[in-house]
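ligand=adenosine-5'-diphosphate
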Amino acid sequence: MIHCEGLVKIFKTEDLEVVALQGLNLNVQQGEMMAIIGNSGSGKSTLLNILGGLDRPSAGQVNVGGWDLLKIRDDQLVEYKRNTVGFVWQNNARNLLPYLSALENVEMPMLLTGKLDRAYARQLLEWVGLKDRMHNKLHQLSGGEQQRVAIAISLSNRPKMLLADEPTGSVDTATSDQIMNIFRQVNRELGITIVIVTHDLALAGKVDRVVAIRDGLTSTEFVKRNPNLDLASIDSGVGALQEVHEAFVVVDRVGRLQVPKEYLDAVGIGGRASMEFDGDKIIITAPKTLEGENNNES
Ligand SMILES: Nc1ncnc2c1ncn2[C@@H]1O[C@H](COP(=O)(O)OP(=O)(O)O)[C@@H](O)[C@H]1O
Ligand SMILES: [Mg+2]
């Protein structure tokens, strides 16, 4: 369903280039329900927006359901978004219409594409457990219920793939479990491929596979080293841990590079570091002065 190879996304602003994805590889099988985990700023949303056709890649290969998203024309992209992808965000309330009922909210995108299917709209609301609340106005529903309406809406165009960016980011644990169960159910019943982006490691045990992303690279090495990750909770992801990637960092035009926080923590580098050049290596270490002296200086 998804094939990314050497995927690069660079955001250019006035004086700086941010390399959000730096040659990312990812393969997702049709019908798979998988999670992408990673810290804030690691490029998860950037990846999802590219997969969803909301943003264009800069370089590399990205093919989803037979579409080449690097070469796709604008008019094809509209068709791609309409027929291939469903999207769920962390905070969907903004995209919902508060004074319409749950059912009317699900029917709205169907009306917009001229494919109103009332029976299917009801079916979707039943799937997300809102059979008895479908005639309630949206503003009468709780946050978790609204999130479930949003999931029903994301499925209203019968997409082949569902992309969810932090879908449980602003709900409590019980609602989060419920949402994950809904994803599992639609994955089984509709055979739909589901990619869930999260920084919540607890969700890892509820999907078929977990891929970790760090600094715009999918890196299984990260999974292995992250002390917070309970490896026992990742079933089929464990096989992938055998392979270790070399981690690359990008050095920008003025020579800045980002050192992974865990490296800095491991050698105890806080605000300052000392740097040596030995002819073919650059060595970054914790300053030789004592912490206390640093504090006095600053
Ligand atoms: N539109 C943009 N313009 C410039 N930089 C961006 C833009 N979107 C994201 N970035 C940068 O790209 C990196 C990855 O961001 P993002 O994909 O949102 O990470 P995540 O979703 O994992 O928190 C961050 O350094 C972020 O600041
Ligand atoms: Mg994000």
